[in-house]
Amino acid sequence: MTAPRGARCGKQDPARDGxxxxxxxxxxDNYIAELPFGAPKIDEDxxxxxxxxxxxxxxxGPRASIWYGAVARADHETIEIGEGSNVQDGCTLHSxxxxxxxxxxxxxxGHRVVLHGAxxxxxxxxxxxxxxxxxxxxxxxxxxxxxxVVTQGKQFPPRSVIAGVPAKVVREANDDDLAHIRGNxxxxxxxxxxxxxxxxxxxxxxPPAGMVPGDALS
Length: 218
Description:
Elements: E1 31-33, E2 41-42, E3 47-48, E4 53-60, E5 65-66, E6 71-81, E7 86-87, E8 92-94, E9 101-103, E10 108-109, E11 114-116, E12 119-120, E13 125-126, E14 131-132, E15 137-138, E16 143-144, E17 149-150, E18 155-156, E19 160-163, E20 168-172, H1 175-190, H2 192-195
Parallel strand pairs: 1-4, 2-4, 3-5, 4-6, 5-7, 6-8, 6-9, 7-10, 8-11, 9-12, 10-13, 11-14, 12-15, 13-16, 14-17, 15-18, 16-19
Antiparallel strand pairs: 19-20
């Protein structure tokens, strides 16, 4: 799927040509759009949540997911998100000229992470609120602890547990760590069937002061 310029992409309505506008139902759509540098390429089995933004030369692989409020913007260099990877709520993904952002397979990118022009190999867990900067490389089977800052150009070998500001290796990842990484990625994939079911909340006015819901209005 390559999104048309300025498309808002929700689930398809067979009764009409194009995506459903969930804003009609009280649910904001995601925003998927072409930029002069390129257009998104999103696998049909990938998921982009309502309120997420995917613009420019972003490639999203099978079973990959971008969750609520996350932004992936590839306006000067490419972004690739591999099969089975999840980018959680509030993340920011960006790339700079000469610094593509590459996220491998079965990677978990925790809430509010910033990934900027870096390479994250397969089966990595990037903890909540961490930052990974241009030219950095996180080897496969690694964990980046919550709040860590991986500075520009920093290289970490496979199976590293990384923490701190600036981030450093604190120990080698073990088999339990790898099982945890794989479990996180699998859990987010398992959530996709429910996440695809958009169920708008019906908003009702609050009752007047002194009344509770269910009281008859005079």
